[in-house]
């Protein structure tokens, strides 16, 4: 409620209109429970939207522009509706809303202008998909305020991804945008990234809690190293396709790795093949309520990301190692692209407070910085909030 209030107050401060006709929207962040660096390799991932995200208060106006003001950034983002939208005119956070509006505009001309004031409790650049949350938020606001019914949620996810690939220049897969748009309470999404279809796996984790641990280490390398990993996977696929017909790298088998011509490609492909299988094992474990097995798969995933995919860092490793040794810890791994950002952990509620306290101390001792720990719940995706 406090964040809605801040968004409404922020909006009122930038426009001189009375309080009525304000519309409210929310877009969540996401965590990925299993299946990392798999989406752009056409396999299975298991994310969920979370109960932290971006809150927006919106008011329509008659000017031919969209004006977005963010509580966390000084520069507003102003997008003209009568002129061409050019990526060079936008920097930093502005590229995400501008990219989405550019993509929607290519399909349906947007004519309705609006002001939006956005407030977030999602740490930015920490691997919880604050960028996908912003893209989906702006996309949803445009579709609702302009009454565009011809763009489905699936298309919206695809065009948000396109915006990030082309306008922002990160070659990300579909997972984040899809998860924040389709998210649902009490369930993990099992997303098939080749066919872009999903099913739900119930996530009633009691007595375990899902924690996010923010390393507070900015993911500085994320863009360039991320694109490099994608290129290495494309190269591995290309080499394997010379010996067998494969649609994507996740379809390869470990025995195929001998046909790759260098050790880096072998390691990258080995992560992709084993991680994809882990997601399917995790689905079965969850359907049978075997959280201990899920926890073990999380540890295995982290080891593979650290050793084969080489996207972890000492801060993330410290959190995972700590959890493994703690009596309340069931599983932990990095989540998102890596190189900093956040880890997730499954922790038994009995030892939860002790776990948090001891991890804070341990992490500070290991790294010289404090980490942020908070609990998350699988939650509903982007939506317009209609107060009762
Ligand atoms: C980032 C990307 C996603 C996905 C993850 C790694 O979050 O945006 O598409 O590739 O990294 O799993």
Summary of the model, kept short:
The chain has 388 residues and is an alpha+beta fold.
CATH first level of the largest domain: Alpha Beta
Q: Largest beta sheet, briefly?
A: 8 strands, mixed
Q: What is the CA–CA distance across the termini?
A: 13 Å
Domains, number:
2
Helicity range: 40-55%
* Structural class by sheet pairing and helices: alpha+beta
Can you offer a commentary on this structure?
The longest helix is centred in the last third of the chain and has 25 residues, at 263-287. The protein folds into two domains: 3-200 and 379-385, 2-Layer Sandwich (Ribosomal Protein S5, domain 2); 203-375, Alpha-Beta Plaits (2-Layer Sandwich), CATH 3.30.70.890. The protein has helices at 2-14, 95-107, 130-145, 153-168, 175-182, 222-241, 263-287, 291-307, 314-325, 352-367, and strands spanning 23-34, 44-61, 65-70, 77-80, 113-120, 187-192, 197-202, 208-214, 329-335, 342-348, 372-375, 383-385. The protein is built from ten helices and twelve strands. The protein starts with a helix and ends with a strand. Helices cover 40% and strands 23% of the residues. The model has no long low-confidence stretch (mean pLDDT 95). The strands form two sheets. Strands 1, 2, 3, 4, 5, 6, 7 and 12 form an eight-stranded mixed beta sheet that branches. Strands 9-10-8-11 form a four-stranded antiparallel beta sheet. With 388 residues, the protein is an alpha+beta fold. Alpha-D-galactopyranose is lined by residues 32, 36-37, 39-40, 172-173, 175-176, 336-337. Residues 32, 36-37, 39-40, 172-173, 175-176, 336-337 line the site of alpha-D-galactopyranose (GLA).
